[in-house]
């Protein structure tokens, strides 16, 4: 039997306070200033630090409850297949349904349950999986345990397990994974929270399948949690879940995007809500969450490490969305697509530990201190990162610090057309991954990845690496392509592998004729238009404007009849290069193929092969053709069909899966004087297909007759590159 938490008194409406009070709290959280309201008065009478925790009663024990209080000798073993498990350290109390492992209750700070009372018990705090048979349709499965056990119990720590075991001999098409989800509770008098992790295993004899996504979801009290915080700049009041339904919301052409036409909070009327607008790169996240009203409680998901998340540091993932939902995403295809699926073959075995991550709870009785909950959560993130890897995890598959190793080195860039000297790889990203080809770390999903950013001199140390043999990868802002060291790197427990000085030589044949953009694997340096006022999200009016809905249609507003023409030496990429190469909306809302033109002048054509370096930040369902001077088959120099499933354009991203191409252009196709390069987006009829370009460069053939010109370019370009480099990473 499951004990239902005591319900709060009936609310006057869906919100527990007026829209005016919500607006006040929003302003407070942004400014940190005190305010006067009925909410402030009620909050002033609440002190979460004096809240007592009710001890286990005889009635609780009789109803099949396992009650464990860390630090106290209170533990009752009952029927393994009935009732709840209650974990209580005197500050936070968790209620978990056994043996399934569904988190049904979190009591903290004067609130009987932080989780949504209107959701059923399997939909409050849970793990889930998206998977498929090879070539088959996507399947969704809620992770439900069949065996409950206490893994570890001491005076200062409790760890419990809810395990589902897969038997390959079982008939039917079942998820071929054994999954052990665990909750850990440690008695730390200064910290309120708990850890979660899961052990995923493909046992011998399992059939082939593809793993698309796995995560843990927390659905919070909808009448209490209204305010999200995912960064210093990205904080706001969110809609209610009812606002997404017909009558209050209007679904747009992207299914996840809803125009709020009659929201419960009238301040949100006319805005667009979409969960993808709140995505973050792995490297830029680490902590995100919600803040409630009356009482004022912060609920935060903290990732102490990204080593167990797929796709490396630039992988974008969801964080929070209307519900109110708070997500811990471990493995997903968002912003990349099928290229990042984890493919398992017949009979292949595999094991991976996802986590542990930390759920941190904090509160304040003073509404004027509400913003400090975010400041405190950021500090707690640093505490968790410093404690990684944890020393209290009770599984041999998770390695402690003494069981891990490290690697130290220094990375340089050798680019002879920029500088005659080695260039320190300033603020580059360097990582160890199981991938063994250039750039393949972006789609690596089975193993662990370990990444750091170099200092201003290119120095780096990658700590706490699980022993094994890895490829050493990297990429350097300001330079094209991916770095991969020629030799695999072996990491041993308890030792530091000295890599010495390493050199990345970006691909280059000859001097630059022209270039467009800055190579940072995004389209952020190009023109991002203002949003159509009909589809605004006020949070992104000035910061991360690319997150706004419907920007693909703004191309048609700017170029209603003809396409973009960019003239080298005249046009400005920040003003004249639209950030997304998309179809143009024509009559009857039909979307038409588009052709972008790059005009440039060549004083003299050198015999040989010119090179076009084309770096793409994201591609979705694209047929691209590149022609020189004339659009016909004789002048076609590059063609790629049906490329990409990133969906970064419709999901409001500025990058997805990085792709790089080198294109040969015979000198016979060029003429002295004016030339044109045509980028033909050949597929029409799709409003959401297209390309986010990162950078492109035309190189002349290397020639001894141009040595003097090359040397002159070195001096000027080295100065320009350093200037842009500093602006990009120090502002």
What can be said about this structure in brief?
By secondary structure, the chain is mainly beta.
What is the annotated CATH architecture of the largest domain? Distorted Sandwich
- Count of helical regions: 7
- The overall pLDDT average reads 88
| CA(first)-CA(last) distance | 57 Å
- By CATH reckoning, the class of the largest domain would read Mainly Beta
Write down the Rg.
Answer: 28 Å
Could you name the CATH topology of the largest domain? Beta-galactosidase, Chain A, domain 5
* Whole-number total of structural domains: 3
**Which parts are unreliable, with pLDDT below 50 for 5 consecutive residues or more?**
1-19, 30-64, 69-81, 714-731
What does this structure look like?
This protein is 11% helix and 36% strand. The strands form 9 sheets. A 9-stranded antiparallel beta sheet has the order 7-8-9-10-24-19-18-12-13, covered by helices on one side. Strands 34, 35, 38, 39, 40, 41, 42 and 43 form an 8-stranded mixed beta sheet that branches. The chain has 731 residues and is mainly beta. It has 3 domains: 74-387, Beta-galactosidase, Chain A, domain 5 (Distorted Sandwich), CATH 2.70.98.10; 401-504, Sandwich (Immunoglobulin-like); 512-713, Galactose-binding domain-like (Jelly Rolls, Sandwich), CATH 2.60.120.
